[in-house]
Amino acid sequence: MSIAAVIDPVEAVKKAYPQAVEDVVLYAGETTLVLNPDYLPVVARYLRDTAGLVYNFLSDISAVDYYPDYNRPGRFGVCYHLLSMLYKKRLRLKVYLPEDEPTVETITTVWPGANWPEREVMDMMGVDFKGHPDKRRILMPEDWNGHPARRDYPLGYETPMFSFNADEIVKHKPKAKE
Amino acid sequence: MGISSKLGNLGVVTTTLDAAVNWGRTGAMWPLLFGLACCAIEYMGTQGSSYDLSRFGMELNRASPRQADLLIVSGRLTRKMAPVVRQLYDQMSSPKWVIAMGDCASCGGVYNNYAVVQGCDEIIPVDVYVAGCPPRPEQLLHGILTLHEKIKGESIRKWADDEKWAADRAEHVVRV
């Protein structure tokens, strides 16, 4: 039994799904494939199942909020970090999602391990994964409003207290009753 | 020559009921077995042989809130944890006391963000605040002894008769 020779993922995907690839970024020895969101599950399955590629491990899913920089295809970027354990190669898939409807199809159908990472992105960034089997929040409390990792989410809860504004802050601070 | 011979025939000591009860409360105050963050490590160090909390009758950390007298909030209290802490406090039987150990439990400390309660006094009444990040065991011991001093000034009527005080406490709603 022999192992198929490794092939270039960028060329392979461009050949198999020419309309799926929007951009290819080569930086710091890392390869990023910017995909059309509609083709993400198809390309993911292709990368996993094709001899010579075999990206059989999804190591992480992360998301970026580019607010207020709109010089990109969309406000949100969702990154999928793949690893081929067979060929010891890594690849990053990236999709840009619009601000008004940040929705992309789930890839739990390809890698079941995507379940919790997608829930984390859903919870912290507010990106919706269509077809995800379990759309509960994973980090924040269930009744939480908003998505804290978004850049327009208010960071602080209480104004930092200094001697000049201490009285004002203490006046409005909620206190448990004795 | 032991103390019995020095006391001679003094068989009776008179005192007030408050003093006797408070002597008992301060002499064996059982803390809840409860830790939140790195302050809990210092708390464990306080329990260890070097600082030896059992000098104050506190060597017994109760794992059940129903048997505990003292809740030491040791560490930053996240909003997700806040309902749990309030429930633990509500389950403790009166009389009960709370020490906010460290900057985070006292006022939020460095965690001025959406996830952390800015001082556990927002959800439970606190008796003693201990500063420090984290406080050394000496500071925690000082906080406990300060609480002892506070208890010695209390009357048992505070816990037994003051229905309004108890009603206020029952009415309180957790803010999360």
Give a short overview.
The complex is a heterodimer of chains A (178) and B (176). Chain A is of the alpha/beta class and 178 residues long.
Please explain how this structure is put together.
With 178 residues, chain A is α/β, with parallel strands linked by helices. In chain A, 20% of the residues lie in helices and 26% in strands. In chain A, the strands form two sheets. Chain A has a five-stranded mixed sheet with strand order 1-2-5-4-3, with helices on one face. In chain A, strand 6, helix 3 (115-125) and strand 7 (128-130) form a beta-alpha-beta unit. The longest helix of chain A has 11 residues, at 115-125. In chain B, strand 2, helix 5 (102-107) and strand 3 (128-130) form a beta-alpha-beta unit. Chain B has a single domain, classed as Rossmann fold. Chain B is built from eight helices and three strands. Chain B has a three-stranded parallel sheet. Chain B is 41% helix and 7% strand. Chain B has 176 residues and is mainly alpha-helical. Classes of the chains: A alpha/beta (178), B mainly alpha (176).
Features:
heterodimer; A: 178 residues; alpha/beta; Beta Polymerase, domain 2; 5-stranded mixed beta sheet; two-stranded parallel ribbon; 4 helices; B: 3-stranded parallel beta sheet; 8 helices
